[in-house]
What we know:
Elements: E1 2-5, H1 10-22, E2 29-32, H2 42-47, E3 55-57, H3 67-76, H4 89-117, H5 125-142, H6 154-169, H7 180-191, H8 193-196
Parallel strand pairs: 1-2
Antiparallel strand pairs: 1-3
Helix pairs in contact: 1-3, 1-6, 4-5, 4-6
The protein binds glutathione.
Amino acid sequence: MKLVWSSASPFARKVLVVAHELGIAxxxxxxxxxxxxxxxxxxxxxxxxxxxxxxxxxxxxxxxYDSAVIVQYLTSLIADQTVLPAAGPDRWQALTLExxxxxxxxxxxxxxxxxxxxDEAQQSADWMAAQMSKVDGALxxxxxxxxxxxxxxxxHAAVGCALGxxxxxxxxxxxxxxxxxxTAWYDGFLERASAKATEPSA
Length: 202
Ligand SMILES: N[C@@H](CCC(=O)N[C@@H](CS)C(=O)NCC(=O)O)C(=O)O
């Protein structure tokens, strides 16, 4: 299988974290798709008509996307896996946690694009503040009722990768301040082999 990927993408990292947790990372070859919305890489366009990464080319079918679909596909390859619980409250908790982690990334990436890709005169401080307020709302929820718990799931992977993205691109943000429970959980995430094997870089 081939995964269109970039070293900074938290969505692509989530897919790889799940692959490591499932024990199938060695079945995935990564293809670099680094680019921007204005200038996407050829591999990124080839894998997804939306010109976003990650996408996964399977051995027996057309490319699939987005990261949440790829994760579901990978879990379907392994009988009796627990990374995506098959049914019941644990499944909905895992998927909701995944949506929360992914949502942090979507908002943070939109701010990153605003800062990195638009002239200062075009940047909207109000837009960026609104997006970062979504990030902060999600972080507060994760430090409270939504703190990841139980067996490691796709939700845990998404949250860990989102926090890793904040450290990578928003190092000045100090998201840990006042969020001791989430900080402690993240320290545990960083100790996992799957996190160590997929450390992001700019
Ligand atoms: N919902 C998508 C989001 C993917 C996404 O936004 N990826 C970024 C890279 S981290 C991208 O390809 N951005 C290019 C663009 O927005 O045009 C997923 O979960 O895979």
